[in-house]
Design brief:
Elements: H1 2-25, H2 31-38, H3 42-50, H4 57-66, H5 72-77, H6 95-125
């Protein structure tokens, strides 16, 4: 039982670390500004910080949607860089190579979505003891 709980805590910690880096990079100032951008209440982020709750799939998805440089593979699995380098297409770069790169990223993102869906299903099966009011 401790395995899945440990995994969820690690994912939450990586989410929070990525959030802090995004706040710094985008000069958002406060976590409330970050919460507003991704569409969650500030108390939900505060609950993550104090360990009252753990990050959920839609929070990770919202972060990745609003801040594409945030690496979901890092948050979920600890792989890769926390903040991805954004790729800018150079004039002389082969467009087909760029399309292939985007397709590879799409494949990775599909795998991440399936993983998040699995976590959501598990969360629905087990009743949560620390629910927000």
């Amino acid at each position: 039982m401790g395995g899945i709980d440990t995994l969820k805590q690690e994912i939450t910690q990586r989410f929070l670390a990525t959030m802090e880096q995004i706040i710094k990079n985008h000069q958002l100032g406060k976590q409330k500004n970050f919460a507003d951008v991704i569409g969650v209440e500030n108390y939900q982020i505060s609950n993550l910080n104090i360990g009252k709750s753990q990050v959920n799939a839609w929070m990770i998805a919202a972060m990745a949607d609003k801040y594409p440089e945030a690496n979901p593979d890092y948050i979920l699995n600890g792989r890769g860089e926390m903040i991805r380098k954004t790729k800018v297409l150079e004039k002389d770069e082969n467009l087909w190579d760029y399309i292939e790169l985007l397709q590879e990223e799409n494949t990775v993102q599909k795998k991440q979505i399936k993983f998040l869906q699995t976590l959501l299903k598990e969360a629905r099966i087990k009743p949560e003891t620390n629910q927000d009011q």
